[in-house]
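Pasting as-is:
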Amino acid sequence: MASRFLLRSPLTSSLKNSRYFSAAAYNAGNKDSFYHKDLSIEKVATPKSYPPKDQLLFGHTFTDHMLEAKWTRENGWEKPKIVPFHNLSLHPASSVFHYALECFEGAKAYRGKDGKVRMFRFDANMRRMNNSTASISLPTFDVEEAVKCVTELVKLESNAIPEGFGYSMYLRPTVIATEPTLGVRESNSALFYTICCPCGPYFPTGFKAVRLFADTEHVRAWPGGTGNSKLGSNYDGGMYPTKLANQKGYQQILWLFGEEHKITEAGTMNAFVYWTNEEGVLELLTPKLDGTILPGVTRDSILGICRKWGEFKVTEGSINMKQLIKASKEGRLRELFGAGTACVISPVKEVGYLGTNIPIPLDPNDPTAESGPLARRIYEEIMAIQYGDIPHEWTTTID
């Protein structure tokens, strides 16, 4: 079996030796790549104007330009180019339509109080994308070159990045299979592209706690599958179960696995439990990367930040619903929240499970609070890093 490992992190060691990132994905020296030195830029004749920032909805408004690079098995990567934003023209038999051969990433660019634009750990996103492409036999690329090319797109679109805490420009790098042939096999052609969306806060109603439905009938991922890759096929299976959960009054699903109903993920986010564990130790726990869990960049950032604080135990481990209920009844459960790029932190106030609702504490000192103290603290710390209020090696300033 090929060696596998994860994203590098200056603060955490859990990702360095994991089995769940391929060596190909981590290799920044991949010879078959597109290169920044070959990048061409075609600008629009008349730049668009954008809605006032308070009218921006997440993922609804797109910028003037996009980055793209084509690939074929015969000739490798073509030269990358930034071109005016346009619709894609694809053959109806393209593999992406029939066999879900596609993957994507989510990252953000921020404008700080000093007016400077910053990107947050985008190299980690590109390494994870290489893992995703390799998992479905799509081409990998040189991570550093991809970062440079997307950075040029961010520079060009920097006028579209709104100012203010909670505002940003969302980046969506994507790789799709484009071979116009029916047949379940590797695609002989692909397209890498990146589009940008100026956006406001992910939750337009504000930083509010949500209700999760612990689903005992549907499964998000399984051992030996692709749950550790950011593939569209890992999301479409959750659409119908989420619809059912919504009809019951819950916003997202708390995904479970196995007879013990082990907690895996929270909606489209990594899950975190803050509790006094069964040994009486104060602990922040998130499900370990066992191949069914997406190695979130925000997840890794939270682990690094909390380990650096050194105020409580930080664990990548396992917890099931029986343990969660017991901790709740015994007053040991402090907080439960999800974490991801789009929302950063999503506090949870209640979990529906087997016909009962498990209350999740928020702030015991503030009955009107929509978040627990730890979730709020982590949220503010990460956002301060992203906007440049706290200087950090995770941010790259764009000139």
